[in-house]
Amino acid sequence: MGDAPRHLTADGYVDRYEAAAEGDPLQALALLAGWLRTEWRPLFAELRARRPILSTPAFTVVTRFSDVSEVLRNGDIFTVSGYAAKLDPALGAPVMLTRDGTPLNWREKGLMQVMLPPEDVPAVRALVAETADRALDAAAPAGRIDAVGELFRPVCTTVCAEYFGFPGPDPGTLARWSRTIMTDVTANLAGDPAVHAASLEAGREMMEHLRGALADRRAGDAEARSRDVFARLLRTALPGELAWDDDRTAVNVAGLLLGFLENAVGSMTHLVRQILLRPEIHRAAALAAADPDPAEFDGHVWEALRFDPFLKVITRVCARDHVLAAGTPRETAVPAGTLVLAAVASAMFDETAVPEPDLFRTDRPPHTRLHFGHGPHACVGVHPGAAVISETVRRLLARPGLRLLDPPDGTVVRDRDIFPDRFWLGIGDREG
Ligand code: HEM
């Protein structure tokens, strides 16, 4: 492992981490967590070359594509029990993401695949196109748009309302519930009790609202006609032994919001910035955006996201002692109870799986991308979710004069250092 090219080790992350760990392990972990957020590309490049599986007292980071796949594919060893401890109490019930290889996961994942079929994509794209164009037209006279607040969020909350059938009391409340809960589930590695308590409270409010919405829908007469996902679930009558009822419907409608909103808004923010940072790619993407067939444009979208994925690591908890990458020079024992960070952002730059990873190539095969997860918990909303991202960004990129603005205006402003809240872009005539 010590033979990595010099340019990859010049930053010396491993040496600096280890030196810090000898003095103060907690401070060393804080250093690593900071790099994971802001210097992930050089950090992961060095780890892939020098320490592909890095064990720390708090977690193990896995950086090569094949090892990330091993973690994500083996749900019986690398489990989602960490999500269960956080999400189940917030929703007051288990949900598919928190259950490995159980009847509940099997049954509900199958059912939700039926509810979110690829055949919905054209209608979802049409809804997104109309909403996005309206937002862009409204912003055009000002010559600038807050892409997060005026475009990505309104499009996504419209999809929640119209396609999922979950408008919430208002878009702001939907966003608050989703962000508060997902902060605890995905970003509270240190287990801050205040973050967890806020998630429990948001989850309680949301589930109470959903149960009320469900009762209203049952009492009304629109359900038979509605095609939204909530209505489809309410029309689903399964035999009693399959344990499907209104409570499960409410939990799964909550899952639609939680799986979608922050992931979609964050991903769009990251990938649009990556495209606009590259003038030639921007020109090519804008040309492809005009093509009625989105296939060529989609290549730009997913490649741009690879250069800055919103979700950089997927977490798992190791359920029993396991030797990862067994039989290779990097094989590492992972004891039961270890928190494992499967670094998908790193895997997508592993040259053994993604040829010439530093090149922006729109023709990469889908198996080189991990944006929607991998293995038994791969995203159940991938078809409509991908369509929302692609169509929103396509409408934006089709606008002439689209450009990044200089800081501070053009800086992405984030809540909790994670969730994009503001991202001003110029559109139209530069004089405007
Ligand atoms: C219609 C929109 C969406 C819905 C309803 C949805 C829902 C879900 C659900 C329920 C899961 C858990 C599946 C399981 O445990 O078996 C999941 C997994 C996942 N989703 Fe989505 N999602 C949507 C959009 C997105 C988007 C836009 C992204 C990111 C670009 C995304 C990324 C992921 C990832 C990475 C996983 C794997 C999580 C893990 O393995 O821990 N999803 N999604």
UniProtKB/TrEMBL annotation:
InterPro entries: Cyt_P450, Cyt_P450_B, Cyt_P450_CS, Cyt_P450_sf. It holds the Pfam family p450. Transmembrane segments: none annotated. Keywords: Heme, Iron, Metal-binding, Monooxygenase, Oxidoreductase. It comes from the Bacteria. Belongs to the cytochrome P450 family. This is Cytochrome P450.
